[in-house]
Amino acid sequence: MAKAPVLTPQAEDFPRWYQDLVNKAELADNGPVRGTMVIRPYGYSLWERMQQEMDARIKEAGAQNAYFPMFIPQAYLTKEAEHVEGFSPELAVVTHGGGKELEEPIVVRPTSETIINDYFSKWVQSYRDLPLLINQWANVVRWEMRPRVFLRTSEFLWQEGHTAHATYEDARDYAARIHRDVYADFMVNVLGIDVVLGRKTPKERFAGAINTLTLEAMMGDGKALQMGTSHELGTNFAKAFNTSYLSREGKQELVWQTSWGVSTRMVGGLIMSHGDDNGLRVPPRLAPVQVVVLAIKGDEAVLAKVREIGDRLKDAGIRVRIDDRTDTPFGRRAVDWELKGVPVRIEVGPRDLESHTVMLARRIPGGKEQVRIEALAELLPRVLEEDQALLLAQSRERREARTTEVTTLKEAAEAATAGGWARIPWANVGAEGEAELAEQAVTVRCLVTEDGAVPDADDAPGTVALVARAY
Amino acid sequence: MAKAPVLTPQAEDFPRWYQDLVNKAELADNGPVRGTMVIRPYGYSLWERMQQEMDARIKEAGAQNAYFPMFIPQAYLTKEAEHVEGFSPELAVVTHGGGKELEEPIVVRPTSETIINDYFSKWVQSYRDLPLLINQWANVVRWEMRPRVFLRTSEFLWQEGHTAHATYEDARDYAARIHRDVYADFMVNVLGIDVVLGRKTPKERFAGAINTLTLEAMMGDGKALQMGTSHELGTNFAKAFNTSYLSREGKQELVWQTSWGVSTRMVGGLIMSHGDDNGLRVPPRLAPVQVVVLAIKGDEAVLAKVREIGDRLKDAGIRVRIDDRTDTPFGRRAVDWELKGVPVRIEVGPRDLESHTVMLARRIPGGKEQVRIEALAELLPRVLEEDQALLLAQSRERREARTTEVTTLKEAAEAATAGGWARIPWANVGAEGEAELAEQAVTVRCLVTEDGAVPDADDAPGTVALVARAY
């Protein structure tokens, strides 16, 4: 008789598989207030690694971290007309503080453009103060009617960048730089996810932006996930908050702005990109634990060898963890590390000591082989880079295999509802076509040029729309 | 005529000096909602360095990071009687979400013992799950009637550790380990602040704790600042949330718990410990910028040399910043770096190029000297360690000089109101004496043993009370 699977198989019920994995790999739990989540230590260690990698790239792009209050006077939200319309259905409102009813209600930030512009308008005086490049790591709240852990939660963790520039061109180029050199570089080269870089349609833009750049990834079930966005805000917030500067020529000018963010939603994207029926598969460059060294049994010689191997690999610069919990059956621990998606397991038993070998199990391509202990420190970095490349290749292959070229709205909707993406000339869709697709819960994920670049305008000739169902 | 001072002198008005420094060194601004603050990039970079140093020590102590929701059902707070009494006057309450009035009001976490115990009670089943050692970096809200930036703000950033143990002894030892190996080690060896480690009196304990360990520092005006606390919670929250485990002997037992936290308040402590009339002085081991290399004038040879020196120092492992903003007058930039407390300034002008020397200005002891460029990479690490030691020595000397040994309540109150600390036998104070001192806004900061150790009990013979005014 076959063993009962640890997770609901993907093919049987993908959303259920996702929920099973999140629970059994101990990534997160639902919070007591509807739509909130508890990020458990292993899930949080994935987010910490994302933060480290992103933070380095953000600093490399010249932005500095700061922190703005999460409480925003309600009146601030209403200063930019589209912004308030976009966000007011999602707000959490504080009406009481320190035992008293407040004179003015306070909202918990859904995003920080308004409060940040209040300060930018004080800090920016002359062209010498520009560009002003700020980032913050914070929690935000957007009330969710249909929450799903990591993907749509009422409170989530993110970084939000906010910048002010002297010219339109400068702001445009910076939004594109973040899109490409920070976000795409991280997602492709660290997460191993083959994201498509594109431009949102006017309908799908951020509330208050003149242009939104997006990164879209195909999940294991063929749906799309928006992994991050970078916005050109034009002078919309600058007008609302009077954020202006004295130019080199002595004129008072409005600043041009950008904002950009990625969130804990990326953890959901990671799971649904690389997970399989045995659990998560974490790309080695991201992995908080790249290699786990397991003692099969608890005798002293085995434990000593496990520690020795662990130390040696740590010295070789590998993120390694020892598993010497031999009072828990070996099989259960092996399944647990498989669920958690640690790329390499090294299993050490009494017989291995004589032969100076260990069993090396690879989570990403699968398979096991006997390896000489002496060879590990040299072998493993190569193995990890191979596995990193494999995940990216699989992500690319899936997207290519499940993307169809079509010309009609009907075909596009069919491809999307069948669990794939459609590429269709944007001229054949337009705002009306978008509305029609929306009735079938299908959206234009982004616009790209014929050769796959990011279009400069909404209606450049030859623009292609990428159409899909999305999380 | 003497130059007008940049800051209000400390001796003239210490609180005003503090506020001036916070503004002029661009550390923080007041937020739009009363009691909140905007932490500006330079202020935030101090906090980031604190986080890095603390996070490494917390992980070394075996705790793992996680994240719990900031929204807590109001009913949770009421489960532990002392806890709700302590915190309810300070709560911010969310009554509306997603455009609707909520059925049950939600509080924004003032601290997370309650919500964390809700999960600990699910995660802990057997003795094998213990100890459970969790930390989170988060924002919390405690409504403030008399806010002061960094020191008392309605929203602040902190880390809060929460642990569960099988026995009283285990929990007690872990709270003490955090107190000593994480907090004191960081504050003494990185912040350069000569903290006193002690035990809080029953009156000053955390709401819900059976014992609170504290770290108290003397500020520049002789007042005390509580820099951090580590609590033994006993089984109080375990009872309220039924957090129990199956022991090795097969019995169901309550867990013993600890919690511990330090916050952005430490930035205030840093300022008031080490600042002087010219601004902040940042201890080198903490400093986000240890050395700034300034171009006095903008000619190309000077700028090239500045960059060359910067690269060389970076290679030597020094955290270095280049200041080539030569369109701003040199004097203004020098004052700005002095205000920000960067330990070493290296000033490069055209004449220095010929002599292969630079001017080295030291912020901490003061003074300038001509130094050969070749000697810098070897000289600077020594200079920085000297400065680190000097700050700690000054902090210690101040505390010793301004602490008086007394025997009566009257003398203790006099010493405290004169701007110093008093040491008085705890037997001469007691709960009644504490109440009497409180009328003069004087508190028992902590209890210590005769030889300066942390007492094991509230009323051990020979216990000494440290009495002061406090922030």
The CATH fourth-level homologous superfamily of the largest domain in chain A = Bira Bifunctional Protein, Domain 2
Which structural category fits the helices and strands of chain A? alpha+beta
The strands making up the biggest β-sheet of chain A line up spatially as: 3-7-8-14-11-10-9
Biggest chain contact: A-B, 57 and 57 residues
Q: How would a crystallographer describe the biggest sheet of chain A?
A: 7 strands, mixed
Query: What's the total number of strands of chain A?
Result: 23
Q: What general form of chain A does the structure show?
A: globular
Distance from N terminus to C terminus of chain A (CA atoms, Å) equals 37 Å
In quaternary terms, these chains amount to: homodimer
Low-confidence stretches of chain A: none
Query: How many helices of chain A does DSSP assign?
Result: 14
* CATH fold naming of the largest domain in chain A: BirA Bifunctional Protein, domain 2
Radius of gyration of chain A: 25 Å
* Integer tally of domains of chain A: 3
Topology, pairings included?
The structure is a homodimer of 471-residue chains.
Chain A: H1 14-24, E1 28-30, E2 37-39, H2 41-60, E3 64-65, E4 71-73, H3 74-77, H4 81-87, E5 92-97, E6 100-108, H5 113-123, E7 132-141, E8 155-165, H6 168-189, E9 196-199, E10 211-218, E11 224-234, H7 236-241, E12 244-246, E13 252-254, E14 256-263, H8 265-274, E15 291-295, H9 300-315, E16 320-323, H10 330-340, E17 344-348, H11 350-355, E18 357-362, E19 368-372, H12 376-401, E20 403-405, H13 409-417, E21 421-425, H14 430-438, E22 443-448, E23 464-468
Parallel strand pairs in A: 3-7, 15-16, 15-17, 20-21
Antiparallel strand pairs in A: 1-2, 4-6, 5-6, 7-8, 8-14, 9-10, 10-11, 11-14, 12-13, 17-18, 18-19, 21-23, 22-23
